Amino acid sequence: MLFWIVIVLITCWMALKYLPAGWDQYRPLPEVIALIPLLVVPLVLLLPATGFTGNWPQFGVTVVLLLVQVAWQIGYVAPIPSALSPILGVPVQTLPVDGEYADSSFADEAGASSEDSAESADDYPQTSSASPQAVDDDADSVEAADLKSAASTDDHHTIRVMTLNTRYGRADTGTIMHLVKQENIDILAVQEVNTAFIKRLDISHIGDELPYRVLGAVRDDDNAGSNALFMRLKPAIFGDSSVNISAAAAPVATVRIGDQCVEFSSVHPKSPPRSGKDWSDGVRALGQFALRADSRNEEGFNCCADDDANTDDASIVANGSTDSDDVTPNADLLAGLPPELADIITRGMKDDSDEDSSNAEPTPDVTETAVIELPDFSEPDRGPVPHHAAVVMGDMNSSIYHPSFRDALRQGSGLADSSFELHAGFNTTFPASWPTFPSLIEIDHVLHTQGIRAVSAHAYTVPKTDHKALVVELEVA
Boundaries of each Endonuclease/exonuclease/phosphatase domain copy (predicted)? Predict the structure, then answer.
């Protein structure tokens, strides 16, 4: 009878994986569902116990439950037929490619010899009111940093990203910098960030490797801190918040890589103990990043305006310096304007802010600029409209076992979990603060939309935080 009780309990526990999306918001279901893959341990112990005692019905049910567990987890080491994915309740392993990407299938292996080249957005204007800060005033060092970014082979470009929950900003910045250099990280996403952590990163010379940053808006409902992005590539579009998640704001930065505009984001949905409903809503909201990319592709949105417009904005040019007294107009006002008109508006606003404007140069009569023709965004000389993709990184407090997380992956054209897509083993990231105990579950993820595929993924220990850093190499068509 004891064996049957244990088996029924395990069966009901495993069945929670098939709850409808959103039903997993009720505590302690999020925590219980996260531990489903660990039920392999009691099942393995039950196998000899029921066999040696001659309880063959219980033995047979235990074997079936073990096979179900293997079927759920085999996707991490081998492909699962797509027809079985709905039955097994596992997410899509790979995403289709549409349009011009349909004929540029990804190679099974990236080229052994790849040319290091810079595919940055340095020639493109900012078109957001947020301001990515450039922290290195040495033009040569920034140029060298850009040259190390986004290696390309033919029509494909590789980019390396890293995500880490810094645990209230306590993570060891020396180890983070070591990983950034060793793994040649192009985009770093960090969560639970605070001012002290940013200062320690600056002391560690983060700007030498990743000169651009977008810090998430600080809010009262931050999940133990805010989120941030540090980048080797200069963004064309950026913002301190994006998708509405009931937790820390999700900063975004769009970078032109090859023929694609890729939106990178750092996210951290609320942890279940803070609010089960906010946790579920926040996790499911991650699917909106796929919807954002779909919407931009449908609208034919071009993330990069005219090459010469707005390139001298001191707030985003790495070798410039932004004086604290400078007044820079909202970048949305300048997006797409001819440089002459943008310069007049900028200098006019600065002159108005000067306490002593007696020695200021006369501002040209704005009426003279009224005849300047604004750019026609439908003109063909702006080049083909690029494909839009998204890469979502962060501590998502959920795994593929959670119905809310799988619902996020299904929205729009879909999101793929890089670790699950690779079939190269597990990348467990939590907990990572127990010295003699391994990480048990994978709740830190790098998700991406179509037009991108994962090449490799590895988890690394960082002192003073309870999460491992997840490093993923992505190939962009």
Answer: 162-467
